[in-house]
Inverse folding.
């Protein structure tokens, strides 16, 4: 079912446009030396934006990965430089999809991408099942709710 959703999303729900926007953002940041961390995150999100169904972006700490010092500051800079504009694009795309009724699942995908547009650094793409298991494990261990948030 995820394959069909991803195929329809890519062709008709704005997936190809979202993928190209994230790819363009990554390319712009890759040109500068200081923007390479931004480019790596944007390339990762571009793959997710092309095929979001059946997968989720979660904080790498939920999978036991160490957070790199300064990620919060870099995410703040990302939000100012590119994240706000990508989030606006995805929010508008989500509203347009919701207006078509048949595009409601695509609208949810746009809103998921708008959420990640604010802080893509430190995120990992995993299947929905792995994301649920990681959140359940984190809750059982007692991690901060901000880290467990879907």
């Amino acid at each position: 079912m995820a394959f069909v959703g991803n195929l329809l999303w890519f062709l008709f729900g704005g997936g190809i446009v979202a993928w190209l926007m994230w790819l363009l953002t990554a390319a712009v940041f890759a040109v500068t030396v200081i923007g390479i961390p931004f480019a790596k995150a944007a390339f990762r999100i571009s793959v997710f934006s092309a095929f979001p169904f059946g997968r989720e972006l979660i904080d790498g700490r939920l999978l036991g990965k160490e957070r790199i010092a300064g990620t919060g500051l870099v995410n703040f800079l990302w939000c100012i430089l590119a994240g706000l504009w990508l989030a606006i694009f995805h929010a508008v795309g989500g509203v347009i999809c919701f207006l078509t009724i048949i595009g409601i699942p695509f609208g949810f995908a746009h809103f998921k991408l708008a959420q990640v547009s604010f802080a893509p650094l430190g995120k990992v793409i995993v299947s929905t099942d792995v994301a649920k298991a990681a959140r359940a494990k984190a809750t059982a261990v007692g991690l901060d709710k901000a880290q467990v948030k879907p």
